[in-house]
Amino acid sequence: MKDIEDLIQKAVELQNNGLVTGQIADELNVSRETVVWLLTRSKKEEITPAPKDISVNWNSIGKSAKRLHNISLALCDMVLETLEKINAEVDVVVGVAANGIPLASMIAYELGADLAIYHRKGQESIHAGHKGTISRNFGSVAGKNCIIVDDVITTGSTSMEVIERLREMDAKPRLVVVLVDKKGADMIANIPIQSLVRVVRVD
């Protein structure tokens, strides 16, 4: 129960610091539904049943550049193996802000590819047509083979958003690679998913 109380406290602190639900979900590596549940529970309101979710804390990796580098090498190995199987190349590594960026930059370096950064659309945006964007300060994706790098897949909505946006920009998404896959799918929008760890819930 202490772990849940810790998550509630962290969610409340992040909300008090101005983060919105989607940002808190990214920071805690849980779904948005779980964030709502945590915040509701913190207010001692009538509590709905807890969502089926798993919190992933990879701080022991994230705080060490050496560990990030070693993890990126393992991810590169998986990327190269998968690209060989599907007979594809990589021109650009797309890091999903914010947690995918450190891994993406190291993977791009190892693969000799360009680096692009994807800023997600705001989940709480009042603009229905608002879309995420590729930062102009980094690599271009138009007409290029891309791999997408993030830390965790929970529902797959972020990966789907990035894939759709890349296709709209005439890019060619080839692979999604993450540290942890909580969704448990092999493909998303016909793009293969590779992860170092796959979490499978047994009910």
TrEMBL record:
InterPro entries: GfcR-like, PRTase-like, PRTase_dom
Biological process annotations from GO: pyrimidine nucleobase biosynthetic process; regulation of gene expression; UMP biosynthetic process
Species name: Methanosarcina barkeri 3
GO molecular function: DNA binding; orotate phosphoribosyltransferase activity
Domains: entry comment: Contains an N-terminal DNA-binding winged helix-turn-helix domain and a C-terminal regulatory domain (or effector binding domain) resembling phosphoribosyltransferase (PRT) domain.
Domain Phosphoribosyltransferase: start-end pairs: 74-183
Alphabetic keyword roster: DNA-binding, Glycosyltransferase, Transcription, Transcription regulation, Transferase
Annotated CDD domains: PRTases_typeI
Keyword Nucleus attributed: no
Protein name in the entry: Transcriptional regulator GfcR
Gene: gfcR
